[in-house]
């Protein structure tokens, strides 16, 4: 008689194969960013002569030195970005959670109306001109820090995610028992709903953090004061200045041409990527646990 294979041995071999596969996929995800860091630290002349390489022949901090020569501007831009991100995430979470919780309750009288108010902007938008007029003329937020915060606070996708999370995670019996015990709506929301909903809130917080940190469009539209420019838009301006000097240096005279040729072009682009991405990369591990739970909890509910 043929001996049956040990299922435990099969399971161990499968785990080894899956671990190797996941390790390879993780390396493929990390290597591009590591490659960007290496290029940002490569001498510009070496890049021109030898091309991109994981093992550059000449190392250089010229790209970071060029970007950081703006001194107080870059630190001020970091401060603006951090303030906008922190305040925007807090206000965005509060607004999204309150709105989505109301939509998730069947007893809310105007639930259908506000569902329509939420969904219609997904298909019909006012456009950039209308948005600009509302922000600058109606609200008067030109050159205001709130012009960087308010536009990103409410997102239809975030509301739908949280509404679904509340409906699949918060049982009606729990809400009813709290009401029987004499809790009002605010007490139910703050002391029962919010603690249970931390995975969903962390997911939305990560989305909001990415949105605020990477946003430069609103700064370009509404901000002209240098002290209110966030990091992303400052780096865009630095990149545009470099491109302008590189493209028109020869037509501006010998000195401008020399300056243009001495600028770190490719390495500076990679340094900009590193500067903007590294804070988010450092913050993501703290959100990862809740982020995964927030995305999967609704899938296992009947």
From TrEMBL:
Coiled coil: none annotated. Keywords: Cell membrane, Membrane, Transmembrane, Transmembrane helix, Transport. It is found in: Cell membrane. The chain crosses the membrane at residues 20-41, 78-101, 113-139, 145-166, 192-213, 268-287. InterPro entries: MetI-like, MetI-like_sf. Residues 78-284 form the ABC transmembrane type-1 domain. It is a multi-pass membrane protein. The keyword ATP-binding does not apply. CDD domains: TM_PBP2 (cd06261). Belongs to the binding-protein-dependent transport system permease family. This is Carbohydrate ABC transporter permease. It comes from Vagococcus proximus.
């Amino acid at each position: 008689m043929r001996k049956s294979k040990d299922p435990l041995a099969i399971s161990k071999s499968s785990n080894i194969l899956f671990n190797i596969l996941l390790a390879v996929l993780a390396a493929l995800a990390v290597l591009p960013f590591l490659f960007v860091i290496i290029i940002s630290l490569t001498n510009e002349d070496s890049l021109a002569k030898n091309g991109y390489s994981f093992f550059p022949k000449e190392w250089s901090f010229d790209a970071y030195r060029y970007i950081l020569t703006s001194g107080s501007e870059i630190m001020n831009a970091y401060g603006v970005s951090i303030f906008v991100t922190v305040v925007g995430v807090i206000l965005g979470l509060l607004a999204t959670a309150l709105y989505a919780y109301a939509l998730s309750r069947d007893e809310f009288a105007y639930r259908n109306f506000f569902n329509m108010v939420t969904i219609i902007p997904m298909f019909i938008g006012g456009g950039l001109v209308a948005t600009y007029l509302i922000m600058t003329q109606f609200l008067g937020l030109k050159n205001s820090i709130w012009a960087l915060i308010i536009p990103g606070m409410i997102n239809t996708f975030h509301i739908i995610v949280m509404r679904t999370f509340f409906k699949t995670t918060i049982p009606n019996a729990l809400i009813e028992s709290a009401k029987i015990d004499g809790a009002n709506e605010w007490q139910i929301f703050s002391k029962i709903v919010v603690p249970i909903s931390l995975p969903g809130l962390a997911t939305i917080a990560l989305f909001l953090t990415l949105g605020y940190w990477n946003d430069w469009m609103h700064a370009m539209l509404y901000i002209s004061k240098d002290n209110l420019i966030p990091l992303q838009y400052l780096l865009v301006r630095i990149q545009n200045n470099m491109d302008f000097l590189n493209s028109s240096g020869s037509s501006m005279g010998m000195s401008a041409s020399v300056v243009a040729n001495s600028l770190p072009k490719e390495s500076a682009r990679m340094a900009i990527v590193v500067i903007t991405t590294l804070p988010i990369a450092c913050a993501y591990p703290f959100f990862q646990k809740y982020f995964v739970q927030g995305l999967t909890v609704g899938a296992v509910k009947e």
